[in-house]
Design goal:
It is built from 6 helices and 2 strands. It is mostly helical. The protein is elongated and about 95 Å long.
Length: about 180
């Protein structure tokens, strides 16, 4: 079970919400709010199927969002990244000062959005580098095929077929003899 703790501005615990899927239950926490506070229904969690539908919807939105991000230019992406980082810092301030639960839950969304933007920037940058170095003799290490250390050090087909002058002479003088066998 993962545990969500809601805090008042005075840093008092309102209620501990238990969500299925956590390793162990939380320690006992003192509750500083009247019992009637929890019976209003404001802190109820959606049931399992509803949560799954919400997650599915968010994945579809993410895929659509990524297509939009890939269509943008680098300057636009950097501006969006700057805006998201400012928003994240504001949300963190709100968290410390005791903001609303909706703001606290938005921190995760903004962090993931920042990661998405950075991923798109890095992927497009690497893609452009691959285009630039295509067909060149030397490439940066991260653009070369990884394989294994032994395979990277293996001789190429051309290097394997090369012969020294001495070996070429031997091959010529002492070639494999072929015999016709009488049946």
């Amino acid at each position: 079970m993962s545990v969500h703790v809601l805090l008042l501005p005075a840093r008092r615990v309102l209620r501990v919400l238990r969500v299925p899927g956590a390793e162990r239950p939380p320690r006992r926490l003192r509750i500083f709010a009247p019992r009637s506070f929890f019976t209003r229904g404001a802190f109820s969690l959606p049931d399992g199927p509803t949560l799954r539908r919400m997650r599915r919807r968010s994945h579809a939105d993410t895929a659509h969002n990524l297509l939009d991000l890939r269509g943008k230019k680098k300057e636009e992406l950097l501006k969006q990244l700057d805006d998201l980082k400012n928003e994240l810092s504001q949300l963190r301030v709100a968290k410390v000062t005791g903001g609303a639960a909706s703001k606290l839950s938005k921190i995760r969304v903004v962090r993931k959005s920042i990661a998405r933007v950075l991923t798109v920037i890095n992927q497009t940058q690497k893609e452009n580098l691959r285009k630039f170095y295509k067909g060149k003799k030397y490439k940066p290490l991260d653009l070369r095929p990884k394989k294994t250390r032994a395979l990277r050090r293996e001789l190429t087909k051309r290097e394997q077929s090369l012969r020294t002058k001495k070996q070429q002479r031997k091959d010529l003088l002492y070639s494999v003899r072929k015999f016709a066998v009488k049946a």
